[in-house]
Automatic annotation (TrEMBL):
The keyword Nucleotidyltransferase applies. InterPro entries: DNA/RNA_pol_sf, GrpII_Intron_Splice-Mob/Def, RT_dom. It comes from the Bacteria. This is Reverse transcriptase domain-containing protein. One of its GO terms (molecular function) is RNA-directed DNA polymerase activity. Residues 70-318 form the Reverse transcriptase domain. Keywords: Nucleotidyltransferase, RNA-directed DNA polymerase, Transferase. Pfam families: RVT_1.
């Protein structure tokens, strides 16, 4: 078996690059300034003073970054990696309507996450499947939606039946001992294995929701099921004394722990899903929810009407001839746009959080067949007001920050 990551050295330069990547969108955060303040020499500055130095010119803290990188590299080499305990809190997921326990990690642990993920990239690129979406750059909701649209519209005869399932409590249910066994078999790098095992050991149970490393490790763990489906889900047919192996399905896609199988025949798709469920249970120790669904994929009959069920996945409802936004997301977005329109009509100052919300919702309608909705509610014009509000706020913030630094 080929082993990966053997040429990766977790030295000062590697950690410095990972640290800068981790901080790329966090420079204004207080915990970043607090972390760097711990690596001062001589007369120490306050966290606020370090934060001002960062805002004035990031190169001001280069000596602190170098000392931090040296210290983290030393901890890995001496097997002395430590960081503050993870704090957990319950948060509402607006897309799914579920309460999730999210782990909030210290900035030091977040740096180590980037160190581990970047070091494991070679493994992840080889093992995570082409249609395992979520968390992988360039393979998000739109990537998965576009793939499903392409399959069911270009090959209707091969996508008549579908089965949709999801893993019960995927992250906390992942067997971390089994995960480490997989990694030890495929990774030849003692420093990296030590770091990953230390990070995993800090989680309360299984993998932690909200962790950068957990996203990648979850996809890696589920990749064994993805490749099992691609390589083993076949049926054997005998014709004229010869055996012929035929795949039970046409396409399969994972959106993290959501699974969709498409194929020409219901009986074959059902068999494929049952075999996959057994693999999840016996090989990965994960349970597929018993309410998984076998259905006939939406099609347009001779009467010109839609029959069967659309594919409801990744926040979209995908039909043979169009794609809609999921109802729950649509209603929240429409409510936000109506509030924005009301404030615009009354010449009120647009609430900043509302402007951000409307901008984020726009992506759903941009990537679906929502021309009528956008025209009816004047979404394009409302987006101009929302973007202008965010732009003005950004300029005010930058001027204020510049003035405070000058005064200091």
């Amino acid at each position: 078996m080929k082993r990966y990551c053997k040429n990766i050295r977790l030295d000062k330069d590697w950690i410095m690059a990972c640290m800068l990547e981790c901080f790329s969108d966090k420079w204004k955060r207080r915990d970043v300034a607090g972390f760097l303040a711990g690596y001062q020499t001589g007369q120490p500055l306050s966290v606020r003073a370090v934060s001002r130095l960062i805002q004035e010119k990031r190169s001001n803290v280069d000596p602190l970054l170098e000392r931090a990188a040296e210290d983290l590299a030393r901890e890995i080499k001496e097997r002395d990696v430590h960081f503050p305990e993870i704090h957990y809190s319950m948060r509402y997921d607006g897309n799914s309507g579920k309460l999730r326990e999210i782990g909030v990690e210290s900035i030091k642990q977040q740096i180590y996450n980037y160190v581990a993920v970047n070091a494991l990239k070679e493994l992840f690129e080889r093992k995570i499947g082409k249609y395992q979406c979520a968390s992988v750059p360039g393979r998000g909701q739109v990537y998965g939606k576009n793939a499903i649209e392409r399959w069911i519209r270009k090959n209707p005869d091969k996508t008549r039946a579908g089965a949709k399932a999801d893993v019960r409590h995927c992250y906390p249910s992942i067997n971390t001992r089994k995960l480490m066994r997989f990694l030890r078999k495929q990774v030849k790098n003692d420093d990296l294995l030590y770091l990953v095992e230390t990070l995993i050991a800090s989680y309360k149970q299984g993998l932690s929701i909200g962790s950068y490393l957990s996203q990648w490790l979850c996809n890696y763990y589920l990749s064994f099921a993805y490749h099992y489906a691609q390589q083993k889900l076949f049926k054997v047919q005998k014709r004229r004394g010869q055996e012929k192996r035929t795949r039970l399905f046409y396409k399969i896609i994972f959106y993290m722990d959501d699974i969709l199988i498409l194929g020409p025949r219901k009986v074959d798709v059902k068999k494929a899903m049952l075999m996959l469920i057994r693999f999840f249970r016996e090989e990965l120790g994960l349970e597929i929810k018993p309410n998984w669904k076998l259905f006939q994929v939406d099609y347009i009959g001779k009467d010109g009407k839609h029959h069967g069920d659309c594919i409801d996945m990744m926040g979209y409802k995908i039909y043979r001839d169009r794609t809609e936004v999921r109802r729950s997301i649509f209603l929240r977005a429409r409510r936000a746009y109506l509030r924005l329109r009301k404030q615009v009509q009354r010449r009120m100052e647009i609430a900043l959080d509302l402007a951000y919300r409307c901008i984020s919702y726009y992506g759903w309608f941009k990537n679906s067949d929502s021309v009528h909705f956008k025209k009816k509610y004047g979404i394009e014009q409302l987006m101009k007001y929302a973007k202008r509000r965010v732009s003005i706020e950004s300029k005010i913030h930058n001027r204020t920050a510049g003035g405070q630094l000058a005064a200091a």
